[in-house]
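Customer escalation, tier 2.

The customer says the design service returned an amino acid string that "doesn't look like it belongs to this structure." They asked us to rerun it and document both sides in this ticket. The original structure tokens are below, unchanged.
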């Protein structure tokens, strides 16, 4: 008994809605994405086999091979609050636009009196910014200590506020506790690292991460 041929043709699939959705997603990510600014200096840390990762919420001091110190805070709100505190202490004024722009800088290595000009500079100009001798770190003008003190206090304050709100709402805390870190170039002189460690201990900060690049574990070699 022969089968009757199907009257309908091959089924068709309209891909127009999928293409429209794809373009909508691409447009959404292009409009909402924020591009991270480049670091003002390249730091090549020594290698180790440690695999502990640094949390997103951190306060970091980077030191290049010339011994210049650069300071950065990952939390934008804490960064802006720290700038306002430094502005009051050192009597250097910043506009609200500069404060907002400062929140997007990954780190900086200039004296606070030069910071307004550094903030207003373009990303390319910051790479060759002069004078960029690092954040002052000496007994008469220890700005790095104040940045760590103000920045850390503001980051902890924001974390505690988020923790309290989560407890009151009986929700899980998604924010991470802020951590301190030092990232030094492999060619940095030990005395510079020692001075920075002394700043941390002077502020009663006894736990901090030393950032290294990951190398192969010899015990795992075949």
């Amino acid at each position: 008994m022969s089968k009757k041929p199907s009257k309908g043709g091959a089924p068709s699939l309209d891909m127009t809605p999928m293409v429209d959705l794809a373009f909508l997603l691409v447009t959404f990510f292009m409009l909402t994405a924020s591009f991270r600014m480049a670091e003002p200096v390249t730091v090549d840390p020594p290698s180790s086999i440690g695999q502990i990762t640094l949390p997103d919420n951190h306060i970091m001091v980077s030191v290049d091979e010339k011994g210049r110190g650069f300071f950065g805070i990952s939390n934008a709100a804490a960064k802006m609050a720290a700038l306002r505190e430094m502005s009051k202490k050192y009597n250097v004024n910043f506009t609200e636009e500069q404060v907002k722009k400062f929140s997007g800088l990954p780190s900086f290595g200039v004296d606070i009196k030069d910071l307004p000009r550094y903030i207003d500079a373009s990303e390319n100009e910051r790479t060759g910014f002069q004078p960029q001798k690092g954040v002052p770190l000496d007994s008469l003008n220890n700005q790095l200590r104040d940045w760590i003190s103000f920045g850390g206090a503001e980051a902890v304050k924001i974390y505690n506020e988020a923790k309290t709100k989560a407890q009151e709402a009986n929700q899980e805390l998604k924010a991470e506790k802020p951590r301190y870190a030092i990232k030094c170039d492999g060619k940095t002189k030990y005395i510079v690292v020692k001075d920075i460690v002394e700043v941390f201990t002077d502020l009663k900060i006894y736990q901090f991460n030393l950032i290294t690049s990951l190398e192969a574990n010899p015990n795992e070699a075949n």
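Tier 2 assessment: The sequence is consistent with the input. Residues 47-220 form one domain. The chain has one domain: 47-220. Sent an explanation to the customer and offered a walkthrough call.
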